[in-house]
């Protein structure tokens, strides 16, 4: 199993969701790129962290 925590920062707000852009680690390619969260969950967060775990 591989586990990675990825940081995202606020990019823009849409009608019902908030779009976040990944901040890749220096010298590394983005893992997810962008992510959308529902406004009721994201609220006013300017940065979020998402942990991704692969399972074989």
How many strand segments? 4
Largest sheet: 4 strands, antiparallel
Strand content: over 45%
Low-confidence stretches: none
Describe the structure.
This protein has a four-stranded antiparallel sheet with strand order 3-2-1-4. The protein has 56 residues and is mainly β. The relative contact order is 0.40. The chain has one helix at residues 39-42, and strands at 2-13, 17-22, 34-38, 47-54. A hairpin with a 3-residue loop joins β1 (2-13) and β2 (17-22). The chain is built from one helix and four strands. The model has no long low-confidence stretch (mean pLDDT 95). The N and C termini lie close together (7 Å). Helices cover 7% and strands 55% of the residues. The protein has one domain.
Q: What's the topology here?
A:
Layout: E1 2-13, E2 17-22, E3 34-38, H1 39-42, E4 47-54
Antiparallel strand pairs: 1-2, 1-4, 2-3
Structure summary:
This protein is mainly beta and 56 residues long.
What structural keywords apply?
mainly beta, 4 strands, 1 helix, 7% helix, four-stranded antiparallel β-sheet, 55% strand, single chain, 56 residues, globular
């Amino acid at each position: 199993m591989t586990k990675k925590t990825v940081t995202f920062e606020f990019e823009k707000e849409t009608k019902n969701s908030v779009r976040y852009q990944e901040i890749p680690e220096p010298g590394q390619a983005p893992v997810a790129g962008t992510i959308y969260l529902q406004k009721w969950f994201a609220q006013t967060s300017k940065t979020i962290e998402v942990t991704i775990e692969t399972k074989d």
